Amino acid sequence: MYCRSCGKEVVETAEVCVGCGSKPNAGTRYCQHCGVETDPRAEVCVKCGIRLATAAARPKEGKDWLVALLLSIFLGQLGVDRFYLGYIGIGILKLVTVGGCGIWWLVDLILIASNKLKDSDGRELVRK
Length: 128
Ligand SMILES: [Zn+2]
Ligand SMILES: [Zn+2]
Fold this sequence. Notes:
Elements: H1 65-75, H2 80-85, H3 88-96, H4 98-101, H5 103-113
Helix pairs in contact: 1-5
The structure holds zinc ion (2 copies).
One zinc ion (ZN) binds near residues 3, 6, 8 and 20.
């Protein structure tokens, strides 16, 4: 790839450009794919057609609240709701204890129903 600030070729995994010292994706002047100069406001490279990389990656959307709720109601005792939200360890624990004899299942169900439980990345669940 190319540094988006100075156009110098850098390795794909580079955190910092050896040419200018900034993050390779931080700039807006060159295409990261072919190294051609780009319009700072362009989203797509006019030469190679690739989507230009941006340093500010869009935050990933949270998990679906309704899916989590349904999983919690029907499969909560097997920890499937926790698996869905990314809490693998807690999910397994819930699975082997059969939802903490139903208590844990109920607690998680209430937490999800009132949208108090976030996913393992700390994002709120999205109601669609
Ligand atoms: Zn650079
Ligand atoms: Zn390009």
